[in-house]
Design brief:
Length: 174
C-alpha cells in the first residue's frame, strides 16, 4: 500500500492515516476468496516453511481455476528493528508468534469429498507482543500512546488467536 492505512493494515500498527494506530481489524483476503468455493487459496511464508510454499505453488499451478497465494513479505515500511537483512528470520517469527498462520484451500479436494482446507501452522509458540514490538510500525505506537498501544496490541493478539482457532475448526471438519 506504500505505507498508508487500508483494510489490509493490521490492528494496532502505525501507518499514514493511522498515526495513533489502526483500530479496526484487518480484512481476511484469503477467507474472502475461499467464500467463492472455486478459488485455490494459500497463505504462505518462505522464511517459516519453504516446503509449504513450494507445495502451495505446485497446487496453485495445477488447479484449473483462479489461484491466490498470499505471502508474508516483510518490507521497509514495517521498520524491522533487526534490519532488512533479517527478513527471513522476521518472517519465521511472524508464523511462530501466530501473527501469520499458514494454510492451503484446494477446491479440488472438495470435489473428491475431502476437506479442502489444510492448516499448515501449529499453535503459536512465540510471543506475539514481542514479535510486533520488533517492528517500528508497532513500537512507535507504544512510545507515543502506551495505554492505547496496550489496548490495541491485546486486541490484535486476541484476533490472531481467534483466527487460528477458526482455521483449526475448518481444518478439523470432515
Amino acid at each position: 500500500t506504500g505505507g498508508q492505512s487500508s483494510k489490509a493494515t493490521p490492528t494496532g500498527s502505525v501507518a499514514k492515516f493511522a498515526a495513533a494506530g489502526k483500530r479496526t481489524k484487518k480484512k481476511d483476503l484469503g477467507m474472502m476468496a475461499m467464500s467463492y468455493g472455486y478459488v485455490y487459496v494459500a497463505k504462505v511464508c518462505m522464511g517459516a516453511n519453504p516446503a509449504q510454499l513450494l507445495k502451495a505453488m505446485v497446487e496453485a499451478e495445477a488447479y484449473k481455476g483462479p489461484s491466490l497465494i498470499i505471502a508474508y513479505a516483510p518490507c521497509i515500511n514495517h521498520g524491522i528493528k533487526a534490519g532488512m537483512s533479517k527478513v527471513q528470520d522476521e518472517a519465521k517469527r511472524a508464523v511462530e508468534a501466530g501473527y501469520w498462520p499458514l494454510y492451503r484451500y484446494n477446491p479440488d479436494l472438495a470435489a473428491q469429498g475431502k476437506n479442502p482446507f489444510t492448516l499448515d501452522s501449529k499453535p503459536a509458540t512465540g510471543d506475539y507482543k514481542e514479535f510486533i514490538l520488533g517492528e517500528n510500525r508497532y513500537a512507535a505506537l507504544k512510545q507515543q500512546f502506551p495505554e492505547e498501544a496496550a489496548t490495541l496490541f491485546a486486541r490484535a493478539e486476541q484476533e490472531a488467536k481467534d483466527k487460528y482457532d477458526y482455521y483449526k475448526k475448518l481444518n478439523d471438519m470432515e
